[in-house]
Amino acid sequence: MQSDSGLLGWLKIPSVYNVFSAAVGGNVLRCSLIQNHVRAKPGDKVIDIGCGSAEVLRYLPDVEYIGMDINADYIAFARRTYGNKGTFLVGDSQSFRDDPRFKDANVVMALGLLHHLEDQEVTHCLQFAYDALRAKGRFICHEACWIPNQGALSKYVMSIDRGRSIRTEEEYRHLAGNIFKVDAWVNTKPLRIPYVTIVLECEK
Which residues lie closer than 8 Å to 28 by C-beta, 6 or more apart? Predict the structure, then answer.
């Protein structure tokens, strides 16, 4: 579930979202995720579910990249900015379920997507990723995460996130573990604002 009410609605505009993301440390975090967890190699096929404006392409090597997002403005921005570096499509894992382009991937990623989805939608997304991967391929996701004894300010900041389905580590592990072999890492200081995230590396 996602909220776009009030000021949060401005984040639907690609340029506004990119400025906000950079201001809170999103670019540094994105670079770290690509280097330490995605670990794509030149020539790999990479599928990005909920790709936004495809800013990850600034940090990926020369890969076969396919990005999808339900926000047509994000996809239009990605095509203008990175048009020769990938394929950018409007839709989600359900709309591309039977699309043959989404097969034999080395890596599928969903960075900041699952906490916008209800459990049933997450399960569909995870199954889509599993089906899109070749043997031993990996699904990488990065999400907002509740932790025990979380500070009040961090709780407040996360409570006003557009994503309304933030989960605990155990809940993310349970959902992903029904389909994948899962490793997980919680980061209590990923950004310049009080926030907690989790990275899941899931192997087919």
Answer: none
Handedness of CA 58, 62, 66, 72 (dihedral sign): positive
CA atoms within 13 A on the CB side of 122: 25
The average pLDDT across 172-195 equals 96
Residue 148 is which amino acid? P
Q: How much is the mean pLDDT over the chain?
A: 92
The structure's pTM equals: 0.91
- pLDDT at site 12: 66
Compute the chain's Rg from CA coordinates.
Answer: 16
The set of residues, in sequence order, having a beta carbon less than 8 Å from that of 125 and lying 6+ positions away, is 49, 92, 93, 110, 113, 114, 117
Predicted confidence at residue 162, as pLDDT, reads 86
Count of CA atoms in the C-beta half-sphere (13 A) of 139: 26
Number of H helices, E strands in the chain: 6, 8
Which three-class secondary structure state does DSSP give residue 182? strand
* CA atoms within 13 A of residue 118's CA, in its CB half-sphere: 2
**H-state helical runs in the chain:** 14-23, 26-33, 72-82, 119-132, 152-159, 169-177
- Angle at the Cα of 30 (from 36 to 125), degrees rounded to 5? 85
